[in-house]
Amino acid sequence: MADQKRCTKCSEAKPRSDFYSQSRSWKRPLGGVVSWCKACYRADMRRRRAQWKPPTTPPTEKQCGRCGEKRPASSFGRLIGTSTGLHSWCNRCLAAAARRRREANPDHWRAIKYGMKRGEYAALAEAQHHVCAICLNTRKLVVDHCHATGVVRGLLCKPCNSAIGFLGESAEACRAAAMYLRRTAAKRTA
Q1: Which among 143, 138, 148 is positioned nearest to 124, based on CA atoms?
Q2: Inter-residue contact 46 to 16 (CB < 8 Å)
Q3: Dmax of the chain from CA atoms?
Q4: Which residues contact 137 (CB under 8 A, 6 or more apart)?
Q5: 86 and 111 in contact (C-beta within 8 Å)?
Q6: What is the reported pTM?
Q7: Do 141 and 130 form a contact (C-beta atoms < 8 A)?
Q8: Is 135 part of a structural domain of the chain?
Q9: Predicted pLDDT at 126
Q10: Are β-strands 152-157 and 70-72 bridged in parallel, bridged antiparallel, or unpaired?
Q11: 51-60, Cβ contacts within 8 angstroms, sequence gap of 24 or more
Q12: How far is 18 from 39, CA to CA, in rounded Å?
């Protein structure tokens, strides 16, 4: 029972992995309820979203809560649950805040998306000599991972990573594409 927690919404004892952690505050509902299991939290959020009604007369302009400038409503992102239906910060301020977060901790989103530890991307790039594992180009490298298992395979440039994705991550399809290019090499030079 030590690795279990009781949901205060449904009263069921569930593993701690079925609850959002304290550190991910953006996952908490308005009341800061982290004692609800993920299933109860998601059900409550679905109910709230279904009940929310957009304003009958949306504003034409709004003042940004960050920079204080008055901007047209098109400069604000939509946000369900607010009285205006718009985010409180303008898109420019949101982008600047996101940029500062990424610069302060560039590994944070990789940890969330791929489960990579701090410095793992840099170590992987160093091991590959900061070049794409396929074409050996020095473009900006992106993380290549298996979509079925989530395992990180290496770092590729965006065109190579996209090509693998378009070929369905299939070794046979990649081999067939390589054979096609070899067969038609004479036609390309003529």
Answers
A1: 143
A2: no
A3: 74
A4: 131, 157
A5: no
A6: 0.54
A7: yes
A8: yes
A9: 95
A10: unpaired
A11: 52/80, 52/81, 54/85, 55/83, 55/84, 55/85, 58/84, 58/85, 58/86, 59/84, 59/86
A12: 8
In a domain, 108, yes or no: no
Q: What is the CATH number of the domain that holds 136?
A: 3.40.1800.10
Instruction: Give the strand pairing for 141-145 and 86-90.
Output: unpaired
**Residue 172 domain-assigned?**
yes
Domain span at residue 35 reads: 4-51
Q: Which residue positions in the chain have pLDDT lower than 70?
A: 1-2, 21-33, 188-190
SS3 for 123? Answer: helix
What is the end-to-end Cα distance of the chain in Å, rounded? 73
What is the chain's length? Answer: 190
Q: What's the confidence (pLDDT) of residue 127?
A: 95
